[in-house]
Amino acid sequence: MARPYRVAIVGGGIAGLAAAVRLRDRAPAGTEVTVYEQSGRLGGKLRTGELAGQPVEFGAESFLMRDPAGGESAAVALVRRLGLTDRIVHPTVGQAALVVDGGLRPVPGGTLVGVPGDLEKVAAVARPAADADTDGGRPLLDPDADVPVGALVRARFGDEVVDRLVDPMLGGVYAGRADDLSLVTTMPALARAARVEHTLVGAVRAAQAAAPRAPGAPVFGTLAGGMSTLVEAAARSSGATIRRDAAVRELARTPAGWRLTVGPTRDPQNIDVDAVVLAVPACPAARLLADPAPEVAAAVGGLDYASVALVTMALPEPELPELSGFLVPATEGLLIKAATFFTTKWGHLRRADGLALVRASVGRYGEETSLQLTDDDLVATVHRELSKVLDTSLPTPVGRHVQRWGGALPQYTPGHLGRVAAARAALRAAHPTLALAGAGYDGVGIPVCVRSGETAAEEIITALGGSA
Length: 468
Prior knowledge:
The chain is of the alpha+beta class. Helices cover 32% and strands 23% of the residues. It has helices at 14-26, 74-81, 149-157, 159-174, 183-186, 188-194, 200-210, 228-238, 282-289, 294-301, 342-345, 375-390, 416-430, 439-442, 446-463, and strands spanning 6-10, 32-36, 48-51, 54-57, 63-64, 88-89, 96-100, 103-106, 111-112, 115-116, 220-223, 241-243, 248-253, 258-262, 269-273, 275-278, 304-316, 325-327, 336-341, 355-362, 399-411, 434-436. The protein has a seven-stranded mixed beta sheet. It has a five-stranded parallel beta sheet with strand order 12-2-1-16-22. It has a three-stranded antiparallel beta sheet with strand order 5-11-6, covered by helices on one side. Strand 18 and strand 19 (336-341) form a beta hairpin. The longest helix has 18 residues, at 446-463. The chain is globular. It starts with 5 loop residues before the first strand and ends in a 5-residue tail after the last helix.
């Protein structure tokens, strides 16, 4: 009787755990799955902690409810698969603001990640360039082209739209700059429309029309009890063996599959498996690929990352606006780039005693020196800047937490998806039982990472001879 297949998943973030669940559901019966996580904690950038006696997110706080085609997102499908649907909650306050000239102004509606489809709607925040978005008789983007978001939007709408709208919105998601980030990777719907439309306004409207949203339908969701409940449920439901504090240091091809070298140099463990999912960031993936697939290692290893810090404070009865939070353009000269009023945004977190949980994000790509401040100095600076923006003297925090995420957010330069596609094609040709998954390849956000892990698992299942 043939022995069961053995699959190793390197990385215990949500992409790796989603891969493990998919393998449990679809791989041949008896397949043995082991997740190797180098830290002591699963979940990657999903981490629920506690502050002032209640759960609070120290990482990703929510997920998109719908996918780009209008169906339920991969995150919602996973939540349903894990039996957590009744825990989904939605924001009770959705309006956010932008800091402009030191004050708060509502984020205008009708934009696509800040790129307007109606120039009049954004005039209170940014003045679009006059008559620059003209029809030149051809599509904005050639069939295989990719450009920085900022280059396209500046040419069509001018600097203010980029600096005051697009850049802070992209910065809130990627901690990067619009002038560096790939249009195709960060705004795929707009890129598709730009290959057909002759004006940017037309492209935005076409992209919005291609993915209509029912009026009143929630855009975001989270889980009562915290995002770590998703992590715990996925690990449990996968049936995988979970090895924490298990760093995979080397990956080598064997005649029958793969050999992993796990653990410290002084006491390594060699483990043979039939297939591997690398669900780790690009840099550690490149190190593991250096021997079996050096060209792929070079292709994925060039991806750079931004580091951020999340500063959460518990404030006794502060005067806060009825907003979900605000974004800060880099031109405002503040350390903080975004803030979220947790107990305002999420009704299930509101407290009868008036204690508010406020989180600020610090750190933009290329400005990592700001993260060299001590925790005390970061908290003091954030508290001071929040008070300035809100034009009020915020009370002294009764609790605070600083979460530093080093090398957390991939910086997708133009051509990223093409490079990833070529790397994966090379792996399929030479090493079909080795797959890549995670934000370093497919994009940020919980649904994208879930789908990436599931897709990698499907590739492994195919390579091993098909599903159960």
